[in-house]
Amino acid sequence: MELNLRDKIVIITGGAGIEGSIGETIVRALAAEGAVPAIIDRNKRGFDYVKRLQDQGVNASFYQTDVTDPDQVKNAVDGVISKYGRIDVVINNVGVNDNAGLESSIEEFMNSLKLNMVSYFLTVKYALPELKKSKGNILNIGSKVSITGQGNTSGYAASKGGVLALTREWAVDLLPFGIRSNCLIIAESWTPAYSNWLDTLPDGQAKLQKIVEKIPLGQRMTKPEEIADTALFLISEKSSHTTGQYVFVDGGYVHLDRSL
User: Fold this and answer.
1) Fewer CB near the last or first residue (10 Å), C or N of the chain?
2) Helix (H, G, I), strand (E, B) or coil at 38
3) Residue 49 a catalytic site member
4) pLDDT at res. 140
C-alpha cells in the first residue's frame, strides 16, 4: 500500500534510542517510505543514525536536544523549519518508565512529568504554526500503564494518562485547521530496553514466560516493526478521517479476557 509519505517532514522525538527500540524502528520505517525523519533526542547516537541514513541516500537530520528544556526544544524545532521550510507530522515518542512512585521525591515526580508528558506539549507547541500551514498531524506514543496502572511508577502513569488527555484535547483544538491528533498505545513490546530489564532479574526468563502467556494473540510480545507499521498508517493519508483515537497495538493484552 502506498502511504504517500514521500518527502513528508516528520519530527520524531526519542528517535535515537538503542537500535531496535520503538523510536529507532519508526525512523527506519519512515526512511523506507521516503519520508524525511527529523530526529529530536538527547542521545548522540542520533548523529550516527542520520549519517547511516544519509549514506543510503535518505534525507534525514538530527537535533541533539534535552526535551525537558523548552529553549532546546524550540531551537530544535526552529532548526527543522530552517532546514526544510515546513513540518508535516510530529511523532512524540519519548517514554521512560522511571519508577518515580509514591516514595519518590517531588523532584523525581516532576522530572518524570517533564520528560514523559511536558516534552510532548513543547514539541507540538513550537511545531504548531507549521502544522497549521501543512494541515499536518500529530501522533503520540502512549503506554498501557495509563489504562491499567502498574505500581511504583506514579510519574510515568500520570504522564501517559496526561498524554491520552492531550491527544483528545488537541484533536478538538485543531479541528478548525484540519490537523489530526491520535495516540498509539503499546503494552508488552520486545525492545532492547525490555530485554535489558529482564537481564537484571534473577528469574528473567521465567518472568518473560509469565508475561507472554498473558498476551492473547499468539502469546508473544509485540514487535517494534508492528508498532512502526501502525504508526505510519496513522500519520498517512490512508488514515485521513481518524482523529482523537487511542489505537492499541498489543495483541489484545489490555482488553481481552485473561482466561484466553
Assistant:
1) N
2) strand
3) no
4) 98
